[in-house]
């Protein structure tokens, strides 16, 4: 067992609800977990984004927030942390990750352009498509194999990447998402990163990363790539970043802040091009939608996020939950990723067809049974084909249990495992779902459902 490298100073009480109360609450919420109040959730695995517990140093730094519009000392400290931890000289703050995506893609992409790389996150995809551009996904085949236990399932298929870059002249940049949230929080190896960088350079296409979970990726590199076993995480991070022209960051993840983001880069000309767009949408270049105190928490969190003892404990938490569920007969994507456990619901509930949303049905059962909230990542989230109006079938029907940073302890995970064990015994009774109201866009957030009888 990994000893948590922290202890609790302040507590946030959980409201204990009974099973009966939860049955009523979820019915009233139209069987949509986004309509459930957090006070009615006992363990919230909805996301690891902005939900982490800040340290005493972050809270102390927050009191030093300089809220000046221009030249704030909080910005100077924030920029210094980004430069030191990641090695990029130019930094544009944004209110969160998607703010960075919006500014970046508005400047880099136009109608008919393309982007290639491993599978981007939904908001990233939406921002690219919103510019009339398309994504050519070159994630390695391992990512989609249930059997493979490859240590770096977030890797790019290098041969495919090279083919795509040679054939396609509309590609404006290569984007590597590390770790790759869309394929189970799986890491990308440094060997693969080097390969990607070499090909991108040869084809004169710039390389950018989405580094929401760069620290977790670096931990996996240390753990799984022999060459780096004795390297400190800080050095692996810099070695990773060395190959990129720039990065987009949601500071709500590996910077353990509740809000924030940024774009960091090497090229002063790119900075000049992005700056006006950033001012227009995010705010002046010294705050970009963050308050001074937010920037202070990110500055501290960037250092805390790469502490090896913290990362080891965090990765072990996900692994403990995932491997215990696997042993209890719940199929999960393996190896377990960095920030979440992904339950394969179509394998767990083979009696529910994909268009009856097995992962959503499982999410509802998990809430009723134990007050635990996860999120469906499957055909419900995938939506309909805009041309044919047909439901799109996702590659996997997954229930994601994302783990907030420094929030839950072993008892919370043991409780979760016990709830799953109860569900395993009676899983045949879980029924599929159909729409009561289907929202036309991003339907998983705001649709309501009925249980099939
Ligand atoms: N990139 C990745 C890989 C992400 O996982 C997210 C958000 C973003 C970008 C967008 O950042 O939320 O700060 O605007 N992921 C969250 C999640 C929402 O639950 O996985 P944001």
From TrEMBL:
What Gene3D superfamilies has UniProt attached to this entry?
A: Aspartate Aminotransferase, domain 1, Type I PLP-dependent aspartate aminotransferase-like (Major domain)
Which organism is this protein's natural source?
A: Candidatus Sungbacteria bacterium RIFCSPHIGHO2_01_FULL_47_32
InterPro entries hit by this protein = ArAA_b-elim_lyase/Thr_aldolase, Beta-eliminating_lyase, PyrdxlP-dep_Trfase, PyrdxlP-dep_Trfase_major, PyrdxlP-dep_Trfase_small
Q: Does the keyword field hold Lyase?
A: yes
* The Aromatic amino acid beta-eliminating lyase/threonine aldolase domain, residue ranges: 44-416
Recorded GO molecular functions are:
carbon-carbon lyase activity
Name of a matching Pfam family: Beta_elim_lyase
Q: Which GO terms describe its biological process?
A: aromatic amino acid metabolic process
Q: Please give the residue positions where the record annotates the modification N6-(pyridoxal phosphate)lysine.
A: 253
Question: Where along the sequence do coiled-coil regions lie?
Answer: none
- Give the family from UniProt: Belongs to the beta-eliminating lyase family.
NCBIfam families, per the entry: PRK13238.1
Q: Which UniProt keywords apply?
A: Lyase, Pyridoxal phosphate
Q: What is this protein called?
A: Tyrosine phenol-lyase
